[in-house]
Amino acid sequence: MSSSAWLTHTFAGLRVLDLSSNLAGPLAAMVLGDLGADVVKVERRGAGDDTRRLHPRWGEDGTVFHAVNRGKRSVALDFASPAGRDAVLRLVASADVVIDSFGPGVAAMLGLDDSALRARNPRLVHGTVSAFGDGPVGRTLPGYDSLVQAVSGMISITGHANGAPARVAPSAIDLSTGLWLVIAIMAALEDRERTGQGRHVETALIDTAFNLMGHQVLGMLATGVVPGPLGSGSPSSMPNGAFRAADGWLVVATGNEAQFRRLCEALGATELADDPRFATIPDRIAARDDLQAELDRRFAAAGVETWLERLHASRVPVGRIHDLNEALEHPLAAERGLLVVPTGAGEPLPQLRLPIDPDGAGVGPAPPVLGAHTEEVLREAGLDAQEIAALVDPAEVDLGAKGR
Predict the structure, then answer these.
(1) CB-side exposure of 208: number of CA atoms within 13 Å?
(2) How far apart (Å, rounded) are the C-alpha atoms in residues 145 and 171?
(3) Are residues 373 and 299 in the same domain?
(4) One domain, residues 201 and 350
């Protein structure tokens, strides 16, 4: 057995019903699937998860969909029809976990809110994702990662001073919220072992956003200074950020006085280490612009490879700035075995393994075609052929802007 294969048995026998769309909820369900759970993704017939239609695409579906939906079985139903709702509730009856990301008020409108689910299955662990919560203010706000970045203040500290607002490029809030949801579900499952009762756990993108900015929040509360954008710089130390060499860019990160002095020595600029303007970390932060100019002038005198060799030899943390293709072609990516090709028809798109799964043992089959497992899963839930036939072509419905 490979070193991480044990992970794939962690939730063997657990049934997860994924009613969510976009990123946070589907990621949480996929993580549980990589850890051995049987994940059934219930989607709107005809449309499916919103991310199926995003670009770029691989085959019929968006690569965003491929990123968070491997290893699942897909059931296509009309959530809003009585027959579709009843079919979902039949599936709920045999599930251990249900994950949803309906917009505010939509679950109650569909008859699929927590009370309805729990009436069918008191042992259910029900995980929900929202953008801003279900309070009187939060429920009125539409939610996507970029909007949460704006409302939380994250965009205000991203990018460069005097530049246009810039979002964090990865959907960091969506994906981090999915991981928080996994933690909450695992805690609720452990609690169920102790009490025999299920539990409703909730996550909100806005909570995740503030937690991701934890040291900026506490720094502002401690000093009263509202932080602004620093480009690639750090609010906590200096020098710590990007510098342009003669033929490209690199990042240098110094976190203590010894590293700063070794950097100055490697640059042939020991006078900077002795300059009272730059004596301590607080001094260097206060004189950030002056120090940046001094270092920029020196880094411009040689190429990236030269500085990498010198700074590595001086034990100064440094790295070349790669584009994404260069990063994936770096020997480190192969060494880490980051990409795994899932099983599936045709040419499945490679998948990124979970960071906790070093061998990629949990990477399941390629993401499912919409509705590919509808009959199979409904039969498992006890529906007969006539009941299944009645669910073949319900009308497509709009479940509201979820943004998760």
Answers:
(1) 27
(2) 6
(3) no
(4) yes
Residue 395 confidence (pLDDT)? 41
Residue 220 near residue 235 (C-beta atoms within 8 A): no
Q: Is there a domain that residue 217 lies in?
A: no
Question: Does residue 228 form part of some domain?
Answer: no
Is 354 in the same domain as 322? no
Residue 124 in any domain: the answer is yes
Rounded CA Rg of the chain: 25
- State the catalytic residue, choosing from 174, 289, 323, 359: 174
* Residue 126 token pair: 């029900």
Query: Is 384 marked active-site?
Result: no
Do 247 and 177 belong to one domain? Answer: no
pLDDT in tens, 81-124: 999 999 999 999 999 999 999 999 999 999 999 999 999 999 99
Residue 15, phi then psi, degrees to nearest 5: -105, 125
Could you tell me the pLDDT band of residue 143, with boundaries at 50, 70 and 90? Answer: confident
- For 309, residues 6+ apart whose C-beta sits below 8 A from its C-beta are none
This prediction's pTM: 0.93
Domain identity same for 169 and 308: no
